[in-house]
C-alpha cells in the first residue's frame, strides 16, 4: 500500500478558476511520495468537477465532497484523512514552487525537535494596490527561527497558513483548527506555541501567496482586526502570567484610541495597566479611565516594568524597540511587541 511522506490538505470552495493551477503546482512537486486530500466545501461553481478530473488523472489525489461547513471544518476533515507523517496546508488560490514539499520535509527530517515548518513566501499580488499585505509578507519573511517566530507571535500571524507543514503527531497531540468567530489559523499557531511546539522556516521562497480581492482573510468577519486582537489578548494574558515578573501589571506604550481599544481586551483577563506612554506632547498628562499618560522617557527601568508596545503605525514599532533596547530592556524578558 502506498504510504505518502506528505499529505497536502486543501479546503476548497467556489475556486474553479484557481484550483487547477494550485493542483498542478502540487502534483509537479519534486517530492513524489505525496497525497492530496482536497475537500470541496459545498461549492456552488465547478470546483468539484475540476477536482474530480485531477483525481481521475492522478491516483495520489483524493476528493471529498462535503456540505458547506466553513474553512476550519473542511481543513480538519482533510487532516483527519491524512496518511502522511507530515501534513502540508495549501490554499486553492496559491501556488507551490517545485521544491516546497521536499525542502520542508527535509527540515522536519533533520530537526526532530521542530514540530511545524514554514518558509519564506513570494507575494503574488500588486505591491502598489495591496501595499499593506506586501509589507506583511516582507515582515514575515524575516522570521525564520523559532525564537523570532515566538517573540513576534503577538504582532501578526508569523507563519502564513498556506505555507505550513507540520507533523501529523502535532495535530493528534495538540488538536486541529478550532471553529469560531476568530481566525482559526492564528489560534492554532498560538495554541501550539503555548503548548511548546517549536517552529522554524526554510530560508527559501517556496510558495506564491496570491492576494485576490475575494480571499477569505479580506472578506470573512472572523479575520477582522478585532477578531485577531480578541484571540491575541487571550493567549497574551496567559503568556504574561508565565513570563512577566511584575504580573499582572504592564506598561502600555501608545495611548491613541486604537491602542486603547486593543489593549483594553487584556483587562478582561486580569491584566492591570500601570500607565500609558506617548511621544505626543498633546496627550501627555491626560488621565484616561484612571490611567495617566506619561512621556516615554518616564518608563521605569528594566526589572521594574514590563512594556507592551501597542503602536502599529509604520516605523513606530521599530522606533519603540530602538528606544527600549537603548534603555537596556531585553526583548521577551522586559518587553514584547503586540501590534
From TrEMBL:
Superkingdom of the source species: Bacteria
Family: Belongs to the glycosyltransferase 2 family.
Alphabetical keyword list: Glycosyltransferase, Transferase
PANTHER family from the UniProt entry: GLYCOSYLTRANSFERASE (PTHR43685), GLYCOSYLTRANSFERASE EPSE-RELATED (PTHR43685:SF5)
An example molecular function term from Gene Ontology annotations: glycosyltransferase activity
Protein's UniProt name: Glycosyl transferase family 2
SUPFAM superfamilies the record matches: Nucleotide-diphospho-sugar transferases (SSF53448)
